[in-house]
UniProtKB/TrEMBL annotation:
The gene is tig. GO terms for biological process: 'de novo' cotranslational protein folding; protein transport; protein unfolding. SUPFAM superfamilies: Triger factor/SurA peptide-binding domain-like, Trigger factor ribosome-binding domain. It comes from Phocaeicola plebeius. The lineage of its organism: Bacteria, Pseudomonadati, Bacteroidota, Bacteroidia, Bacteroidales. This is Trigger factor. GO terms for molecular function: peptidyl-prolyl cis-trans isomerase activity; protein folding chaperone; ribosome binding. Gene3D superfamilies: Trigger factor ribosome-binding domain, Trigger factor, C-terminal domain.
């Protein structure tokens, strides 16, 4: 077997593979013998069909299959061993091979090559880095959420914002009387603070137990089908029939009283002995929020590095027609129109991929299994943190991360996150960071 690579230009080449009978004969003979053991042919016992008949009936298809397997193996091996920086997959050129008569074959493949370019970063390069401010209000919200976990619920006599009401809900007619045959819901529960209309919400201010109030649910909840169907106990498609007023006789008012900031709460949230006072507790909450924001800042930093380097490197040369063929081959069901509409965008993604590959190689970034496992745990920890669960037991993190690692797509995503995390940390030390303090709202607007 002979394999050669001939460059067409800087970004494309033709790979030629010459296969002789000696390259495949042994494999074909072995495959035919295996097939002979399995074939059932009338007039012959299983495994006793003459080899001549086997070759006559199956020889060509077996030859085709073995040559194809040999091609895939040897082409892949050649590309790896010769470090051919190929984009996509080799595209076979037309050939006149006749598997019924020929013994020697020649196959050619069009190959797209990655363009050559240099990319470097130093302290002469300046990139923005956004430091997101952690406000006292953020800390208050988080602390209040934890206090709500240990809250108690008291029955009270007068309504205040965020109280829960329970009572008799009844549909009224145009004269303001209880409608005969209308909707009535006993033990209806609602929280006026969730109403969308401020005027309707104000009707309940200062209301007391046994007070009968008149309001319009449709207006109060801005015609939200799901909320109205739940409140009125009707089907969603029937909600439009109830546009009028309802009376609500308050039978019970329940108020949530947030729990105290106790040592038990500190230990429950942070772990035993991590905080011994409200001040220490709040400081740790602030630190946790800041850490979450830092991950967001690093993500934005890498996006800005991408933009900066893409502009610095400039537009790279690609074998456009060949690249479009590769793209079409990978998106056959979407057709040429899809390729035409998305080709330039795909080159932007490919350019960043190539830049990132060079940065990873230049900084000798490697991904070990321990890195993937730790990233799975951190991803799981971040998910729990979104729900205010900071002190998650290691055993629980371990179990969740193991489930994540069972899925190939998850592992690939985690590998990419490990690479980007390591790359971000290294690049922050190489460039000059232009620190900019921003609010969370200002930061989020950058992604809109």
């Amino acid at each position: 077997m002979n394999i050669s690579l001939q460059n067409v230009d800087n970004v494309s080449a033709v790979l030629t593979v010459q296969i002789e009978k000696a390259d495949y004969q042994e494999k074909v003979e072995k495959a035919l013998k295996t097939l002979r053991q399995r074939v059932n042919m009338p007039g012959f016992r299983k495994g006793m069909v003459p080899m001549g008949l086997i070759k006559k009936q199956y020889g060509t298809s077996v030859l085709l299959e073995e040559v194809d397997k040999l091609l895939q193996e040897k082409v892949g091996e050649y590309i790896r061993e010769n470090k051919v920086n190929m984009l996509g997959t080799p595209l076979p050129k037309e050939n006149n091979a006749n598997f019924e008569t020929d013994e020697n074959f020649e196959f050619s493949f069009d190959i797209a090559l990655a363009p050559e370019f240099n990319v470097e970063l130093s302290n002469n390069d300046t990139v923005d880095y956004y430091d997101i401010n952690v406000t006292d209000e953020m800390v208050d919200q988080q602390v209040n959420m934890y206090r709500q976990r240990t809250a108690k619920y008291d029955k009270v006599e007068d309504y205040q914002d965020k109280d829960m009401l329970k009572g008799l809900l009844a549909e009224l007619d145009e004269n303001g009387n209880t409608k005969e045959g209308g909707v009535q819901v006993e033990g209806a529960v609602m929280m006026p603070s969730y109403m969308k209309n401020d005027d309707q919400k104000a009707i309940f201010n200062g209301a007391k137990v046994n007070t009968v109030l008149v309001f319009n649910p449709s207006v109060a909840f801005d015609n939200n089908e799901a909320e109205l169907a739940s409140l009125l106990k009707v089907k969603k498609e029937e909600v439009a029939n109830y546009k009028g007023n309802f009376s609500f006789q308050i039978e019970e008012i329940t108020r949530m009283i947030p729990g105290d900031l106790t040592q038990e709460l500190f230990d429950q949230v942070l772990g035993e002995g991590k905080a011994h006072s409200e001040e220490e507790f709040r400081a740790q909450i602030k630190e946790t929020i800041a850490k979450q924001f830092e991950a967001d800042s690093d993500y934005k930093f890498l996006l800005d590095v991408r933009t900066y380097l893409s502009e610095k490197v400039g537009k790279l040369q690609f074998a456009d027609e060949l690249m479009k063929r590769i793209m079409l081959e990978n998106n056959k069901e979407k057709g040429e129109e899809f390729v035409s509409e998305n080709y330039e965008k795909s080159l932007e993604e490919l350019t960043w991929h190539l830049i990132k590959e060079k940065l990873v190689a230049a900084n000798d970034i490697k991904v070990e299994q321990a890195d993937i496992t730790n990233m799975a745990k951190e991803a799981t920890r971040a998910q729990f943190a979104q729900y205010g669960m900071i002190n998650v037991p290691d055993e629980l993190l371990e179990n969740y991360s193991k489930e994540m690692l069972k899925k190939r797509e998850s592992v690939e995503a985690l590998v990419n996150r490990v690479v980007e995390s390591k790359l971000s940390e290294i690049l922050k030390g190489q460039v000059t960071l232009n620190h900019k303090a921003v609010s969370a709202e200002e930061f989020n607007k950058m992604f809109q």
